Amino acid sequence: MLHKVAIIMGSMRPNNICTRITKWVEKTIESFNEIELSVINLADWKLPFLDEPGIPAAHPYQHEHTKAWSQRVLLEDGFIFITPQYNWGYPASLKNAIDYLYKEWNGKNALIISYGGHGGNKVAAQLKEVLEGGCKMKIVDKMPGIVLSHEIIRDQIRIDLDKHFQPYAQDIQQAIEQLIAALNAKLSGKM
């Protein structure tokens, strides 16, 4: 069975490294033929800051951008969240995109990949709490954190990500294996 999985890019900063990390992750997991990957760049969605008049869990959506976002999320079986760690937390744009919806996230499987000068373990823990506790998603145990050296942060355009990120490839692949196992278990009714 082919599972539809979307990578959600958590950074909307112009010239962000998230775009390059996402491409590297795609390349790192391209051999997993059990998943059909797509990428959701939140910058393409232009979601205003929580402009729905009602609470997502209790009211129908009023705005077309919310209805479109809802339909996009419903298409997927699972998600890979790739997010930077900003000041020990995740970007407001990612929280906003999550908070637009509720039922659409419920029961979906997900994987969190974080990155930052310290690897992103704090952002991964925060995001896991929101996704599991608030959105009722199922997050895999392995949450790879990519440490960005000062060299990468300073000069990210000229950095060879394959070379610098190679030590993280096995963690990413193991996390994808966990995500696929969770998706298979859900499909067979074991979760």
Automatic annotation (TrEMBL):
GO terms for molecular function: FMN binding; oxidoreductase activity. Residues 4-142 form the NADPH-dependent FMN reductase-like domain. Transmembrane segments: none annotated. GO terms for cellular component: cytosol. It holds the Pfam family FMN_red. PANTHER family: CHROMATE REDUCTASE, NAD(P)H-DEPENDENT FMN REDUCTASE LOT6. This is NADPH-dependent FMN reductase-like domain-containing protein.
